[in-house]
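## tool: complex_structure
## caller: assistant
## args:
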Amino acid sequence: MLREKGFNAFILVGGLAAWRRAGQPVESVPREDLVKLPTFS
Amino acid sequence: MTDLVALISKHGYGLVIAIVFAEAIGLPVPAALAMVVAGAAVAGHILRAPVLLPMALVAMVLGDTLLFFAGRSTGWRLLGFLCKVSANPETCILRSAESFYKRGKTTLVIAKFIPGVNTMGPPLAGSMKMRFSLFLRFDAMGAALYILAYFALGFAGRDFLKAMGDTFQTAGHAMEEILLAGVVVYLAYRIWLMKKNRVYRVVPRIQVQELIEKLKSEDADKILVVDVRSHGYYDPEAARIKGSIRIEPNNLEEELQKFPKEKDIYLYCT
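## result:
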């Protein structure tokens, strides 16, 4: 869809796991970005 | 079934309890069948109902309780693991959680009768922080219903069991064929899915090392690294590539509006 809309998009092979394996930096997901699932509490 | 009758006659309560407990913790053993045979054994004065029924109930609730606390201690990771085998892992967690939130108590009562769902209920209740006393109440109701239903079936229909035993081998072969057909259909579905997804292979791919080099180059400001995971964002300890942003893949049309067209977009998931 990105390509259809004219964006120059690429896919990172291996994703986050490959990025970590390469020893590259990661950061915590910001709290506001976390998806809140329903809980009974 | 005749083997099971012989085994239960010989090993009595211990075997029934072990089968019920094993099923409760998710092992593929026939607890319903064991309870039917145990019901017939009680009718035939081989076992005693006042001993058998409480023990079976405790075994089942104990197994469920273990899964409940497994769910509570692993959070969404357990559900994430179970969702990996679903048709759409990206939305499985959210759909399962919402569905259980709406019908969780009823689900716990009837889940025992639904293969697959029976193992999901307790860990989901744990993951979703259901109060243990509430879980215990509804789970015990479900377990009692399940145990009593199959026990009563065996108790009332013990005369039919022998006839069933004679035809069980034939039925067993039929079941094997049904299972085999199920596996073939599932494999065919996965192959169809793989072929369908081939269309996406036209999107260029980039290795991690290439991206690292691009990020170190002068064109680094023209690069946008985008996290397209859905699951993984439920875990408060979730991490992502430093400097990346997230888009919700199920809401791509809307999300695209905030993308600058002059930038190269590098997508990644787990």
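## assistant note: Strands of chain B lie at 205-206, 223-227, 239-241, 245-246, 264-268. The two ends of chain B are 45 Å apart (CA to CA). Handing back to user.
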